[in-house]
Amino acid sequence: MNGLPSELRDLLKHSRTRVVFGAGTLSQLGALARGESASRALLVTDRGIAAAGHVERAVASLKAAGVAVAVFDGVAENPTTEHVDAGVAAARAANVDFLIGLGGGSSLDCAKGINFILTNGGRMQDYRGVGKATKPMLPMITVPTTAGTGSEAQSFALICDPVTHQKMACGDPKAACRVAILDPDLTRTQPPKVAAATGIDAISHAIETSATTRRNDVSLAFSREAWTRLDRVFERAIRDPSDDAARADMLLSAHLAGCAIEHSMLGAAHACANPLTARFGITHGVAIGILLPHVIRFNAERSPGAYSVVDSDAGSLVRRVDAMLAVAGLPRTLREVGVPEDAVTALAAEAAKQWTATFNPVPVGAAELEAIYRIACR
């Protein structure tokens, strides 16, 4: 576990993914891929990451290690089955034996989605849920360029169905990546709005995982460590993008929060956010920021102590999240992002079908979620 603080090494032994952490570690991509027996890799990314120069550096490292590489840069925010299918076509054309996800959570999720279809066939809809891949999957390395989703730590691909607008969680232990390269130099190119939204997403992961019905000793250790670090560093990283130490801590903290998801799950904030992203195109972290304080209040009123691992006082926790959102400068109501209140009933029906809703510390159905949406409209 290269470059990691010593106090985290024992904790990260509970992860399926080896972590290589530190400034400049993207240069190790080729050697790491070669060490995993890669000979022909597909690099999955988006055009913005290519424009930032990260793809060129990644390709150079792979080629220097003797790994042939094809680039698929057709990923868009909130990838759909169509993006996955296009990536599968690129992978088949290049006859790859290895996958690399480079970018934000969308690129990493798309790479995992490609892996499902490339190795097991069928459609993404076939893999909604857990453990539905019957055949081995290709080894993969992920390289996040944002500090937020923690997708590199998870065995789930979140892929949107463009027909139903459902965001499908498709998970399998075989989809976990072999290595995650956490290079804080790559997060320098995050636009401020992206850094804010992804940072709030990481915060929500630390908080929601601490309260789910699936939480356990390992997940709680990850949630607690992620929250402690995020609570300490978030404002510094947002206010001063040139603070390399803060950005590095944000990237590592987001990974820890992603590990917490892998061992626990998420709750009503994510269940409500996903339909907003699928139906209205609202950035995931923005949707999360609007909903998270209301979900914390809702749960804490009905289950006192639900969030005690991160804060024994739910009111204090809400105030802390509100302060973080103020620094992030994100919208605070659904009205601000163009969601009409007459859409709430349909949104709540979709949110109730989200897998994450089933792990909320307080049971929720369409009626409860509609009440949360309506409060978030004001």
Mean pLDDT across residues: 96
Quaternary structure of the protein: single chain
Q: C-alpha Rg, in Å?
A: 19 Å
| N-to-C SSE string, H for helix and E for strand | HEHEHHEHEHEEEEEHHHHHHHH
What does the largest sheet look like?
6 strands, parallel
Q: How many DSSP-defined strands?
A: 9
Task: Kindly report how far apart the N and C termini lie.
Answer: 46 Å
| Number of DSSP helical runs | 14
Main structural class: alpha/beta
| General form | globular
Order of strands, widest sheet: 1-9-6-4-2-3
Unreliably modeled segments? none
- Helicity, as a percent range: 40-55%
Please report which band the strand proportion falls in: under 5%, 5-15%, 15-25%, 25-35%, 35-45% or over 45%.
5-15%
Describe this structure in words.
With 378 residues, this protein is an alpha/beta fold. It is 50% helix and 11% strand. The protein has 14 helices and nine strands. It has helices spanning 6-12, 29-35, 47-51, 54-64, 81-94, 105-120, 192-209, 217-239, 244-263, 268-280, 284-302, 314-328, 344-351, 366-377, and strands at 18-21, 40-44, 68-72, 98-103, 129-130, 140-144, 156-160, 167-171, 179-182. The strands form two sheets. A six-stranded parallel beta sheet has the order 1-9-6-4-2-3, with helices on both faces. A hairpin with a 6-residue loop joins strand 7 and strand 8. Helix 7 runs antiparallel to helix 12 (314-328). The chain is globular and about 55 Å long. The mean pLDDT is 96.
